[in-house]
Amino acid sequence: MQESTTAGELIAQLKPRKNQLDEHGLLRYGKMLIDGEWVGAASGETFESVYPGTGEVIANVASGGKEDVDRAVAAARRAFEEGEYKKMNGADRGKLLWKIADLMEANIEELAELETIDNGKPLVESLRVDLPQSIACFRYYAGWAGKTTGETIEPHARVNAFAYTLREPIGVCGQIIPWNFPIQMATWKIAPAIACGNTVVIKPAEQTPLSILRLGELMLEAGMPKGVVNIVTGLGETAGAALVDHPGVDKIAFTGSVEVGKLIMRNAAGTLKKVTLELGGKSPNIVFADSNLELAAKVALAGIFFNQGQMCTAGSRILIEASARDQFMEVLAGRAAKMTVGDPLDPKTRMGSLVSEEQMNRVLGYIDKGKEEGARLVAGGNRVGGSGYFVTPTVFDGVNNDMAIAREEIFGPVASVITFNDADEALRIANDSAYGLASAVWTNDLKKALTFARGIKAGTVWINTYNMTDNALPFGGYKDSGFGRELGAAALETYTQTKTVYVDLN
Ligand code: ADP
Question: pTM surpassing 0.90?
Answer without folding.
Answer: yes
